[in-house]
Write a structure and sequence with these properties.
Helix content: over 70%
Strand content: under 5%
Order of helices and strands: HHHHHHHHHHH
Distance between the termini: 44 Å
Largest sheet: none
Number of strands: 0
Shape: globular
Radius of gyration: 20 Å
Structural class: mainly alpha
């Protein structure tokens, strides 16, 4: 009975994090971009520092009409937002936030589980593009598929590098084996992982599949109201997951001063710092063209990921 209660409490904590952190990231993005780009609107809603902007956005999405195109594949069209969002909830279950197995569920092959489930989330965009009966949506879905194929490989290779260093594919096991001297020689892999993750989330500057000036928001063109809001929530949940995974794999996760008591805080601070970088990149870098996206993946990120694996092998042999 106690074990069941413990599992239930852990899953409840993960669910609360899933509901809160993406909204915090969304609100932060409004404020950060308002400061960086001189946007006045998000700073006025509700008075002090635009505190009501997120509430206003929620009301706006809730009151919009839910429209399904006449020629759409209705069931697939309606299911796509859930397919895009729910995988990130499953991934959060496996990300450790503190020592002593402070994780929703310990999964032996955790790194393969989270990467596989994150790949499933991208299928929501493909389903939306295919089911919308709109040529711009279909084009956005095809761009999403091409981007997924290109950037999934460097993510997997760099994650494999950390697994080699730790000697395990369990996320809590990786953190138990973590040493601070790993950071300098794994940092290139961390950058590759983070950049590839941004591309999978279709975040700027890798947002060609949803380019509003070219294909009218890509696979999501026909979505309105709460269904569109779910896609936006999936994007912010993806930012939380990507930042959390990068912190766990390459920045030591809960490791830091007084880790036994404040391990969860170190994980949270590292995750939020990386989420700030995601927002910063959106505000500063222009969108890459589709050919530039593919060139970056195949000629830069994948060779760097392979070099990182080779370096990890050399270091492992040298220290053993």
């Amino acid at each position: 009975m106690n074990d069941t209660l413990e599992v239930a409490l852990r899953l409840l904590a993960v669910f609360v994090i899933f509901l809160v952190l993406p909204l915090v990231i969304g609100q932060t993005e409004h404020k950060v971009m308002a400061h960086m780009q001189g946007r006045l609107g998000p700073m006025y809603a509700g008075g002090f520092h635009g505190w009501a902007q997120l509430v206003a956005d929620g009301v706006k999405f809730a009151q919009k009409e839910d429209v399904v195109p006449a020629n759409a594949d209705r069931r697939v069209f309606q299911l796509a937002p859930a397919v895009a969002l729910l995988p990130y909830l499953l991934v959060l279950v496996a990300i450790p936030i503190g020592p002593d197995n402070a994780v929703g569920e310990v999964i032996d092959a955790g790194i393969f589980f989270v990467l596989a489930v994150m790949g499933v989330g991208v299928l929501g965009s493909l389903m939306a593009g295919w089911a919308s009966a709109n040529k711009f949506s279909l084009l956005g879905g095809l761009r999403t598929a091409a981007q997924l194929l290109a950037y999934e490989l460097p993510m997997l290779l760099t994650a494999a590098s950390v697994a080699m260093a730790a000697g395990t594919v369990s996320l809590p096991g990786m953190l138990d084996a973590f040493e601070w001297w790993w950071v300098p020689w794994q940092i290139v892999g961390g950058v590759v992982f983070f950049v590839a993750g941004l591309a999978e989330l279709q975040r700027p500057p890798f947002d060609a599949p949803v380019a509003d000036s070219e294909i009218i928001f890509g696979a999501y063109t026909e979505y309105t109201g709460l269904r569109f809001a779910l896609f936006m929530l999936a994007e912010y949940a993806g930012i939380v997951v990507l930042s959390g995974l990068t912190a766990v794999l390459f920045l030591g996760g809960w490791h830091g001063p007084f880790a036994d008591e404040l391990g969860w805080l170190w994980t949270l601070l590292k995750t939020l710092a990386l989420a700030f970088v995601v927002i910063w990149l959106r505000a500063t870098y222009p969108r890459l063209r589709e050919d530039q996206l593919q060139k970056l993946a195949w000629t830069v990120l994948i060779p760097l990921a392979l070099a990182q694996i080779a370096l990890t092998g050399v270091v492992k042999v040298a220290i053993s």
